[in-house]
Amino acid sequence: MNREAREAARELCAVGRRAVELGLSPGASGNVSARAGGLTLMSPTGVSLRDLDPEGLSVLDGAGEHVAGPPPSKEFPLHQAMYRRVPDAGAVVHLHSPHACAASCLPAWSEASALPPVTPYLVMRVGQAPLVPYAAPGSDRLADNLSRLPGRFRAALLANHGSIVAASGPAAALDGAVELEEASRIVVSLRGSEFSVLSPEDVRELTGRYGTDWDL
């Protein structure tokens, strides 16, 4: 790996450990990837994010061919689909965090977003996050379901599964996943109660200021 890829590998492993510390990646669940120096670095299959090692990551070339390290997570097609949707993304984080998983089992708020705009922070830090129809983890169908969704987004909930977030780098992607988990926690806790959401005018102000997407 070149210097850029080595630095990305170190950051990716630090993000994996942080996700476990925050309780967002139980057991050996979840997977992370980063693009650098023409390569994609990814957590290997069956390895806890707590145990990631910069020298033990899976390495894939620009065409998605496995070129070094152990086999990548079975969710590599899902990560590829997210990179195609967000061409400027430098990293993707997919987690099975508890509240995002719970929210992914509920009906979507709208076609554009699984979650309503309950806080300004979801709108300004993540933007809309649609609900991807269920398909088996690691399947090409799951990646296809994400690819076929309309609109622009950098995050999504995977039905009955968890969350996925793309961002400029691993740390930013984890920040988005944390915000998505917190918004999911709020929505799940409000289930069955009347609650308010941000007005369309407030949403437009935030998306305009922070460059996120939210279809109203």
Report on the structure:
With 216 residues, the chain is α+β, with helices and mostly antiparallel strands. It has one domain: L-fuculose-1-phosphate Aldolase, CATH 3.40.225. Helices cover 38% and strands 15% of the residues. It is built from 7 helices and 8 strands; from the N terminus they run H-E-E-E-E-H-E-H-H-E-H-E-E-H-H. It has an 8-stranded mixed sheet with strand order 4-3-2-1-5-8-7-6, sandwiched between helices. Strand 3 and strand 4 form a beta hairpin. Helix 2 packs parallel to helix 5. The radius of gyration is 17 Å and the shape is globular. The chain starts with a helix and ends in a 6-residue tail after the last helix.
Count every beta strand, where a strand is a DSSP E run of 2 or more residues.
8
Shape: globular
> In CATH's first tier, which class applies?
Alpha Beta
Number of domains: 1
Q: Could you say what the CATH architecture is?
A: 3-Layer(aba) Sandwich
Largest sheet: 8 strands, mixed
Q: What is the residue-averaged pLDDT? A: 96
Provide the CATH superfamily.
Answer: Class II aldolase/adducin N-terminal domain
Poorly predicted runs? none
Number of helices: 7
Please give the oligomerization state of what you see.
single chain
In order across it, which strands form the biggest sheet? 4-3-2-1-5-8-7-6
Q: Report the helical percentage.
A: 25-40%
Percent strand equals 15-25%
Query: What structural category arises from helix and sheet content?
Result: alpha+beta
Rg computed from alpha carbons, rounded to a whole number of angstroms: 17 Å
Q: What is the fold-level CATH name, i.e. the topology?
A: L-fuculose-1-phosphate Aldolase
Measure the end-to-end span.
Answer: 44 Å
H and E order: HEEEEHEHHEHEEHH
GO molecular function: aldehyde-lyase activity; metal ion binding
Keywords: Lyase, Metal-binding
Protein name: Class II aldolase/adducin family protein
Organism: Nocardiopsis dassonvillei (strain ATCC 23218 / DSM 43111 / CIP 107115 / JCM 7437 / KCTC 9190 / NBRC 14626 / NCTC 10488 / NRRL B-5397 / IMRU 509)
